[in-house]
UniProtKB/TrEMBL annotation, chain A:
It holds the Pfam family Hist_deacetyl. GO terms for molecular function: histone deacetylase activity. This is Acetoin utilization protein AcuC. The keyword Transmembrane helix does not apply. Pathway: Ketone degradation; acetoin degradation.
Automatic annotation (TrEMBL), chain B:
Residues 7-63, 78-137 form the CBS domain. This is Acetoin utilization protein AcuB. Signal peptide: none annotated. It comes from the Bacteria. InterPro entries: ACT-like_dom_sf, CBS_dom, CBS_dom_sf, Diverse_CBS-Domain. Pfam families: CBS (PF00571). SMART domains: CBS. It comes from Tenuibacillus multivorans. Keywords: CBS domain.
Length: 397, 215
């Protein structure tokens, strides 16, 4: 791996994409996907003093043409009509809308297009503006397909952003997805494209949605060898997760030599997350962006777009995890010690759970895992299988 | 599911008097492992596999390889008679044929004529489709008493949540024969409310089901 010197002395200019309008993307009060996470993150950073008004950028809304870089026009039309309740249940169901996962809500198209606009604003800031990094925690909706909503995602802002980057530049894009669910929508969108390399590390699909993301999904035609998947076992802990992540990302970055990276930072790989079975702590959410940041400076002249994604422990996990991404993007280092008391005081009444008081988790947030060594070994095997292609090439050159 | 639904209809064949060399070329060119041998009336009179040819071909370890062997007619090495299946056979039946006879390919015949072919790979592909894994879904497993009327109760609960089911499997519990395990792939990213409801109604939900690791 190349030397990454001087990251800490470099000055990074970073943009934080934010609008209250992200809250409009709301399915139901009791739905697990809730954009209050973005507001909590924003507020935490404000209280921590690491986010200034000058760094906040208000996003534009994405145009139909931009959304159709990835999605079929009939699907976009269906989302618009469904928002106005102009379609019958049987008409919309083929588009994956009106299900328990993605129920219809008012102004659904506008809300979804705002998330996409946020991600495109982040891209513009980096490829056309003076910014090194830009974050949009309202985005990262990696499950949406060309003509189907899926897994809480209506429009796939991550895939749209990558198409948009490819349309406006000749940058090779490395997409890094550490959400606990497989980044299937983005993977399939670029499955035959050698200029877009996707890496997804996720809990195995044996139980978890969407079920795909096996090591043998490597891309097709010209894109063969540019899709990487590392499924990790249920009950995986920090150490094994980070071993897989750091090995995979360093190896793939060196092999692919990207010009820009897009990270999907779903925060649902935490032990507290109600939808998944991984057992990680805040530790990984400090390490993940630190290596991404380093890779951006080593290979991409700093160009890094960080997105949100999953994350269903809205109060204890997501705000801290995402705030640390920003802390690293703007100040090189995660914060440590106590959380700002003002933030705790502001939100503790609204929170159904006791809010954490420190940036790191206390020990003992989950029970000891009986088969830890076997899980670590199994993850290591998946890592090796996934990287086999690269390792074989290195052997013969 | 019937054989005619999964069989390949375009079959590469040879006549008994074609040479082994021609067979070898066809196998390599099409990346296949079996060629049915037919007569002029398109009756299956034999079959050859890549292994039959390898057995007949000269050893790669020999210095002077006798290439003449490759000019022999294939009827000299083909397997005959051939096990065939009917288009209306069930795919489970071919699975048993493969298992019992330790073969990996069967020609499909109707009125004595060759009309298709099914390989082990086709069958495995179909089985993968049957597990529902090709559709975005979550998997849950439910341990239930082995008696009538349980499955409809469970599917009713899922149906009321407007959640589509991709596949259902039922297999006996290895530890306790009075129990069965129902495996469901359901099209939702959030099975938690369903799992809670099933548990409330007294069902034993295993999600995920790894021995020694139930939290």
């Amino acid at each position: 791996m190349a030397e990454h010197t001087g990251v800490k002395t470099m000055s990074c200019q970073s943009a934080f994409i934010y609008t209250e309008k992200f809250q409009q993307y709301k399915f139901r009060d009791d739905h697990p996907f809730n954009q209050i996470r973005v507001k909590l993150t924003y507020d935490l950073l404000k209280h921590a003093g690491t986010l200034t008004d000058q760094q906040v950028m208000t996003p534009r809304i994405a145009t139909d043409d931009e959304i159709q870089l990835v999605h079929h026009h009939k699907y976009v039309e269906a989302v618009k009509q469904a928002s106005q309740r102009n379609m019958s249940e049987s008409e919309i169901i083929e588009y994956g809308i009106g299900t328990e996962d993605t129920p219809i809500f008012d102004y659904m198209h506008e809300a979804a297009a705002t998330l996409v606009g946020g991600t495109l604003t982040a891209v513009d800031a980096v490829i056309n503006g003076p910014y090194d990094h830009a974050v949009n925690f309202g985005g990262g909706l990696h499950h949406a397909f060309v003509r189907k909503a899926s897994g809480f995602c209506i429009y796939n802002d991550a895939a749209i952003a990558i198409k948009y980057i490819r349309q406006h530049t000749n940058y090779k894009v490395l997409y890094i997805d550490t959400d606990a669910h497989h980044g299937d929508g983005v993977q399939w969108a670029f499955y035959d494209d050698p200029n877009v390399c996707t890496l997804s590390i996720h809990e195995t699909g044996r139980y978890l949605f969407p079920g795909t993301g096996n090591t043998n999904e490597r891309g097709r035609l010209g894109g063969y060898g540019y899709s990487f998947n590392i499924p990790i076992d249920a009950f995986t802990e920090d150490e094994s997760f980070l071993e897989v992540y750091q090995n995979a990302l360093s190896t793939i970055a060196e092999y692919f030599n990207p010009d820009i990276i897009v990270t999907q930072n779903g925060a649902d790989a935490h032990a507290h997350d109600p939808l998944t079975h991984l057992c990680n702590t805040m530790n990984i959410f400090e390490e993940i962006p630190q290596l991404a940041h380093q890779i951006a400076h080593t290979y991409c002249d700093g160009r890094w777009i960080a997105l949100g994604g999953g994350g269903y422990d809205l109060w204890r996990v997501v705000p801290r995890a995402w705030a640390q991404i920003w802390n690293i993007a703007s100040h090189f280092e995660p914060l440590s010690g106590a959380l700002p008391q003002d933030w705790i005081d502001t939100w503790s009444e609204k929170s159904p759970v006791t809010l954490p008081t420190t940036w790191r988790d206390e020990s003992g947030i989950y029970n000891e895992i009986p088969r830890k060594n076997e899980i670590t070994e199994k993850n290591r095997i998946s890592l090796e299988k996934s990287l086999k292609l690269i390792k074989n090439q290195q052997k013969y050159t | 599911m019937l054989v005619e639904e999964i069989m390949k209809k375009e079959v590469i064949t040879l006549l008994p008097n074609n040479t082994i060399k021609e067979a070898l070329e066809l196998l390599n060119h099409h990346h296949i492992r079996h060629i049915p041998i037919v007569n002029e009336d398109h009756n299956v009179v034999g079959i050859i596999s890549d292994r039959d040819i390898r057995d007949a071909a000269p050893s790669t370890l020999e210095e002077k390889q006798n290439q003449d062997i490759l000019n022999h007619n294939i009827n000299s090495i083909m397997t005959s008679p051939v096990i065939t299946v009917h288009p209306l056979d069930f795919i489970e039946e071919i699975a048993s044929v493969f298992y019992e006879h330790e073969i990996a390919c069967v020609p499909v015949t109707k009125d004595q004529q060759l009309i298709g072919i099914v390989t082990e790979k086709d069958l495995l592909y179909t089985l993968i489709q049957l597990t529902g894994i090709h559709e975005q879904s979550s998997q849950i497993e439910i341990k239930v008493p082995n008696r009538a009327g349980i499955l409809p109760n469970i599917t009713k609960i899922i149906g009321e949540r407007k959640t589509n089911i991709s596949s259902v499997f039922i297999y006996p519990d290895q530890q306790d024969r009075s129990q069965k395990i129902i495996v469901l792939r359901i099209q939702t990213m959030n099975p938690m409310p369903l799992i809670d409801e099933l548990k409330e109604q007294g069902y034993d939900v295993l999600w995920p089901n790894i021995p020694g690791l139930r939290q």
